[in-house]
């Protein structure tokens, strides 16, 4: 005669079985969500570049800024400053160097905003820094490199280490992801960026020291700008585009960051400069943000 198992053993058995089954189910759901998401992302119809018109591949707007990427914003500002005809292709198709922005023009593709600027200067015979003296060019170049290769990484630190919860809300990449994929991907994004920060070196400092570095950079550029309309005088140059790209992302995209708080409280000329550039070159800023809200 078969012995019947006590009822509580059956319960325990099913409860223990439930945990791995639920885990396998969640992993499967995330996997399927990931496959569907990345297939949709890659096969999205792509605009074709028109002859003589720059096709600018860049990150999409997110309702706070026209692009969450300072280098994309810088490049778009430069295109407008120099009146170069262009169209934007929003998305996450990265260049062969694995970054945005990149451009296509007359069957050529160029990557990295600074290489793109050099290429387009020659193609369209526009030289945004032509009015600067040799010494001013040296100062502008040094400041641009400081912002892009140093201060920029403090933005990445804030967005992907200090306040990843806000990044899940504002990143145009993460916001369009379904739950729970969004949480898994934001964890990976944070790890990925922490590796970048570590390799750069800036990620090895304490957050207090790192935000101090940001403060020193921002104070220096604020000092250089002073009461002038543009950083190097009455006329804009590439540095103004780069400064706008970075400061606008700080103050409008991550307003809770220490950098944004510093700008708004003590370095008001940087905020002013931002409004200035926006008014002068982006009268359609709000319309563009609205129009491309549903980029995915
Ligand atoms: N030096 C490059 C920097 C571009 C850059 O860092 N792009 C970021 C967005 S702001 C990017 O594509 N990140 C993706 C990644 O590094 O995987 C330029 O000026 O174009």
Can you put this structure into words, describing what you see?
- There is one protein chain.
- The protein has 296 residues and is of the alpha+beta class.
- It has helices at residues 7-42, 70-81, 113-124, 134-162, 164-170, 172-175, 181-200, 207-225, 238-253, 258-265, 268-281, 285-291; strands spanning 54-58, 86-90, 102-105, 108-111.
- The protein has a four-stranded mixed sheet with strand order 2-1-3-4, with helices on one face.
- The model has no long low-confidence stretch (mean pLDDT 92).
- Residues 69-71, 98-101, 112-114 line the site of glutathione.
Key terms:
4-stranded mixed beta sheet; 4 strands; 12 helices; 296 residues; 62% helix; alpha+beta; 6% strand; binds glutathione
Largest sheet: 4 strands, mixed
Overall pLDDT: 92
Please tally the β strands and state the result: 4
**Cα end-to-end separation:** 64 Å
Structural class from helices and strands?
alpha+beta
What does this entry show, briefly?
With 296 residues, the chain is an alpha+beta fold. The protein has helices at residues 7-42, 70-81, 113-124, 134-162, 164-170, 172-175, 181-200, 207-225, 238-253, 258-265, 268-281, 285-291; strands at residues 54-58, 86-90, 102-105, 108-111.
